[in-house]
Write a structure and sequence with these properties.
The complex is a heterodimer of chains A (288) and B (158). Chain A is of the alpha+beta class and 288 residues long. Chain A is built from 11 helices and 14 strands. Chain B has 2 domains: 76 residues, Roll (Ubiquitin-like (UB roll)); 68 residues, DNA polymerase, domain 1. Classes of the chains: A alpha+beta (288), B alpha+beta (158).
């Protein structure tokens, strides 16, 4: 028999999760969880809805750091002009999740904790070097986004833990990010390959810092430091881009499935990494 | 078995219902409240036939638990016409023959109204992307898009 509760504080939610006698599921937007409930893939005794917790569906800015509540729907993220200015890649990734209807509910924490290797917002968040605040019985810890998923459908969160909010770090000047995904149609599909790129340029337009993250080509989204290193010290020139492309391909460990073969995904990952880097670079240039 | 008592607003009127934790908002709208305009197509958030708005946000009512409706304001297709007067979107759907079997139509209308409430002058591309989560297997979409754009023009007084 399933029961439902909607605590109004983080502490109460943790207490309920820690004290649950059977399997419990944390509910934010529910666009993945409800599908799993119906299919029987998830069989919790208890659903803990976190949306009544104050601030959990809001975006705020503190000294240049953006704090996005765990349950903030994609539609709200897409409408936040200040966030879009600072983190265009994170916003475009969040906006790619599902239809308008799904955008009305789907959250970053849900996208991350559903732990699909093809989750759109995850490569963009990792490229942004975002962290998440995890609350649990032992208190709160702040961890990098990439440490949460451990494999398809699996996370490192303990049963008493849930994500409260995401932190996007203060941006140095001349910085920009982008997220690109490849799908065989124009809308409403799951990534064959997703790429998040974030760059910072110096006053001459030379890249001083970069991160490159690939989605859908390994059991989890992967940071590719070799691809980022190819950009640093360069001007988005052909040498850098071609090295980036090779490094991205070398990092791929994809599977064969109906969306693409190993060879295809590996090839496309290089192409998408190059395109994403060019866009991120152009956006950063506009800010120089 | 214990049920949850939920107080909400549906189409501007206060509404209360009892439900079980696993019931979706769509289950309750159709089976408990007998508001059968919202349709069950896929039950997985892919088809949009169950579209409603919650506090003005377009959502799939199959992807929301009924218990989550507590304290929120729901608008369904039943709230669109004012008595016998059809909403301009509904009228334009008839004029343009933007439906055949009609199963997707309530969801498309609710979604289209949510678009026009936000953006009274959408481009064709914006309209097509907005409605990408509403599947129609009859019309090929073209008449739907024309009806929405025509209704938008009428609502703008153009």
């Amino acid at each position: 028999m399933l029961s439902y509760t909607a605590p109004s504080t983080v502490e109460e939610a943790v207490r309920i999760l820690a004290g649950a006698s059977g399997p419990a599921k944390v509910l934010s937007g529910g666009t993945d969880l409800l599908v799993q409930l119906r299919s029987g893939r998830a069989k919790p005794d208890l659903i803990v809805d976190i949306k009544n917790i104050s601030g959990i569906s809001d975006i705020r800015e503190q000294d240049g750091v953006f704090i996005i509540g765990a349950a903030t729907p994609g539609a709200v993220i897409g409408e936040c002009e200040a966030l879009r200015q600072a983190w265009p890649g994170v916003v475009e990734a969040a906006k790619l999740i599902g239809s308008t209807q799904v955008q009305g509910r789907a959250s970053l924490a849900g996208n991350l904790c559903n732990a699909s290797p093809a989750a759109d917002s995850v490569p963009a968040l990792i490229a942004a070097r975002a962290t998440c605040v995890v609350a649990g019985a032992k208190g709160r810890r702040e961890v990098p986004v990439e440490s949460i998923p451990t494999g398809p459908g699996r996370t490192c969160l303990r049963p008493d833990e849930f994500i409260v909010e995401f932190h996007l770090p203060k941006r140095p000047p001349h910085s920009a990010d982008t997220y690109l995904r490849f799908i065989p149609r124009t809308e409403m599909d799951i990534a064959v390959v997703g790429v998040g790129v974030s760059v910072t340029l110096d006053t001459r337009g030379v890249c001083t810092e970069a991160s490159v993250v690939l989605g859908a080509v390994a059991p989890t989204a992967i940071l590719v430091p070799e691809a980022a290193a190819a950009l640093v010290g360069h001007n988005c020139d052909e040498t850098a881009l071609s090295e980036l492309e090779q490094a991205a391909r070398r990092a791929c460990k994809p599977i064969n499935d109906k969306r693409g073969t190993i060879e295809y995904r590996t090839k496309v990952a290089g192409v998408m990494a190059r395109r994403a880097a060019v866009i991120a670079y152009e956006r950063a240039e506009e800010r120089r | 078995m214990s049920k949850y008592h939920i107080s909400t607003t549906i189409n501007g009127e206060p509404a209360e219902f009892l439900c079980e934790a696993q019931q979706t908002l769509l289950d309750v709208l159709r089976d408990e409240l007998h508001l059968t305009g919202s349709k069950e197509g896929c039950s997985s958030g892919d088809c949009g036939a169950c579209s409603v708005t919650v506090d003005g946000r377009l959502v799939c009512s199959c992807l929301m638990l009924a218990v989550e409706a507590e304290g929120h304001s729901i608008e369904t297709i039943e709230g669109m016409a004012q008595g016998q007067d059809l909403h301009p979107l509904q009228r334009k759907f008839l004029e343009h023959a933007a439906l055949q079997c009609g199963f997707c139509t309530p969801g498309v209308l609710v979604a289209a109204k949510a678009l026009l409430d936000r953006n009274p002058n959408p481009t064709e591309t914006e309209t097509r992307y907005w409605l990408a989560g509403n599947l129609c297997r009859c019309t090929g979409y073209d008449k739907i898009i024309r009806a929405v754009l025509d209704a938008a023009a009428e609502l703008r007084g153009a």
